[in-house]
């Protein structure tokens, strides 16, 4: 299970809508409470992919800056998010191919002109696959 606030949920959908038809992307800052992931903050990244309608690439400089800032705070980068414009809210074949970091949370926001849907998965390097996890939106 991953927990996020209603405001964070709205932020993700708004980011996906704003970048449509390109993919939005960013980093997820959070921590673990027993088995659950808890999102503390979301950091939007410019999508540096040369083909932003089909792919995403988070700015590595943003990641390095956040890692430095988060040192010693108990919070860390637990994953990243990106959108699937007019797609489905599940990891694509391309996502699976580009996944390499173990225990990384992937949030995917599928957006069309009228609908939005979120999914969350954790990538396991040992099994080379994504495991879907439940999303809980809190106040
Ligand atoms: Zn994807």
How would you describe this protein?
This protein is of the alpha/beta class. It has one domain: Cytidine Deaminase, domain 2, CATH 3.40.140.10. Helices cover 22% and strands 42% of the residues. The protein contains 3 helices and 8 strands, in the order βαββαβαββββ. Strands 7-6-5-4-2-3-1-8 form an 8-stranded mixed β-sheet. Strand 4, helix 3 and strand 5 form a beta-alpha-beta unit. It is globular and about 40 Å long. Bound molecules: zinc ion. The site of zinc ion (ZN) has 5 residues, from strand 4.
Strand residue content: 35-45%
Q: What is the residue-averaged pLDDT?
A: 96
Name of the level-1 CATH class:
Alpha Beta
Count of individual beta strands: 8
Structural class: alpha/beta
CATH topology: Cytidine Deaminase, domain 2
Q: Please name the fourth-level CATH homologous superfamily.
A: Cytidine Deaminase, domain 2
**What is the ordering of alpha helices and beta strands?**
EHEEHEHEEEE
Shape: globular
Radius of gyration: 14 Å
Ligands in the model, by name, code or SMILES, are: zinc ion
